[in-house]
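Lab intake sheet, docking and co-folding queue.

SAMPLE TYPE: protein with bound small molecule
LIGAND NAME: flavin mononucleotide
LIGAND FORMAT: SMILES
REQUESTED OUTPUT: full 3D complex as structure tokens
PRIORITY: normal
SUBMITTED BY: R.K., bench team

The fields below were copied directly from the construct record.
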Amino acid sequence: MLPSISFSSRIPAKTGGGSSEDTLLYIGADTGFISQNIYLFCASEGLATVVRASVDRAALAKALGLRPEQRIVACAICGVPETVSCRAAMLRPKIASL
Ligand SMILES: Cc1cc2nc3c(=O)[nH]c(=O)nc-3n(C[C@H](O)[C@H](O)[C@H](O)COP(=O)(O)O)c2cc1C
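RESULT FIELD (auto-filled):
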């Protein structure tokens, strides 16, 4: 599972400040860009993925050692599609290095 993390403390600096409503919009857009990149990477490597908002944020933040200001917005579940054998996938050099 690949967490897609938006760093809310950095967003205002990147966008030159603005309202908290603007900040939320930019966090959402940022997360969308990250998620889309994960989908594109997985598609290019023959992997399957879905984005999930339902995640145990407290447990995952603890496991990742996140700072208090870092928020988990969404996660991506990535894996080998059922239609592809795991052995065939693992033999592909790029996938094996993940
Ligand atoms: C922002 C966002 C959050 C989502 N969160 C969840 C989730 O927590 N659990 C879930 O089962 N599907 C969630 N989905 C839907 C899945 O990502 C996926 O689109 C859905 O399971 C259909 O997948 P399929 O078209 O491959 O069958 C979310 C979708 C989006 C766009």
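REVIEWER NOTE: The chain has one domain: 2-96.
SIGN-OFF: pending second check by T.M.
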